[in-house]
């Protein structure tokens, strides 16, 4: 028999929480956490404004205490093409089996990653930060041309590609020019 989940909606998530206790309470915690408090993530950002939204579901799954969650945020990072700011949306999900020692890792179903419980309370902030760092793309660029310079570069590249196609087409028919010249001479003679 499944017990009902206890839902807590918080404006700001606490920094620390006793994960095993939350599993006992079968708790769902939803809330936000300020980007400015995540130092490692801030190193990859142009601005630390805004909040991260998170949903954490503490429950018992397949005989293991588990934590399933989702995180999302809109973050301002540097475009690697034009070096200007670009807003990127990140979202990720995770499934952890909460374990008390490393010997339990081999017993876990494949769907779970191990999360080693150390001490009385665990850091929600570190968990959220780790997940968002994993979601960051290796290279972030604007979807469209970044600037007037990039638009000019892309136009020049397209012109060069068209020129190359024309040269290739002429190379496929090397005597096409002679044929046109012959027809032109025939028209003048007649």
UniProtKB/TrEMBL annotation:
<keyword id="KW-0689">Ribosomal protein</keyword>
<dbReference type="InterPro" id="IPR003772">
    <property type="entry name" value="YceD"/>
</dbReference>
<dbReference type="InterPro" id="IPR039255">
    <property type="entry name" value="YceD_bac"/>
</dbReference>
<keyword id="KW-0690">Ribosome biogenesis</keyword>
<keyword id="KW-0687">Ribonucleoprotein</keyword>
<protein>
    <recommendedName>
        <fullName>Large ribosomal RNA subunit accumulation protein YceD</fullName>
    </recommendedName>
</protein>
<comment type="similarity">
    <text>Belongs to the DUF177 domain family.</text>
</comment>
<dbReference type="GO" id="GO:0005829">
    <property type="term" value="C:cytosol"/>
</dbReference>
<comment type="function">
    <text>Plays a role in synthesis, processing and/or stability of 23S rRNA.</text>
</comment>
<dbReference type="Pfam" id="PF02620">
    <property type="entry name" value="YceD"/>
</dbReference>
<dbReference type="GO" id="GO:0042254">
    <property type="term" value="P:ribosome biogenesis"/>
</dbReference>
<dbReference type="GO" id="GO:0005840">
    <property type="term" value="C:ribosome"/>
</dbReference>
């Amino acid at each position: 028999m499944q017990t009902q989940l206890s839902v807590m909606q918080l404006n700001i998530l606490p920094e620390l929480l006793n994960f095993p206790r939350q599993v006992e309470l079968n708790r769902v915690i939803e809330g936000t956490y300020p980007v400015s408090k995540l130092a490692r993530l801030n190193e990859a950002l142009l601005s630390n404004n805004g909040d991260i939204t998170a949903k954490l579901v503490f429950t018992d799954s397949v005989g293991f205490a588990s934590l399933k969650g989702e995180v999302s945020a809109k973050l301002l990072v540097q475009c690697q093409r034009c070096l200007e700011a670009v807003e990127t949306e990140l979202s990720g999900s995770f499934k952890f089996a909460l374990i008390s020692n490393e010997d339990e890792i081999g017993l876990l179903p494949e769907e779970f990653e191990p999360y080693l419980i150390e001490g009385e309370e665990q850091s929600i902030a570190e968990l959220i930060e780790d997940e968002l760092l994993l979601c960051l793309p290796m290279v972030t660029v604007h979807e469209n041309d970044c600037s007037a310079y990039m638009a000019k570069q892309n136009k020049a590249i397209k012109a060069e590609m068209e020129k190359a196609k024309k040269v290739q087409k002429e190379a496929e028919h090397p005597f096409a020019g002679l044929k046109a010249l012959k027809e032109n001479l025939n028209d003048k003679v007649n």
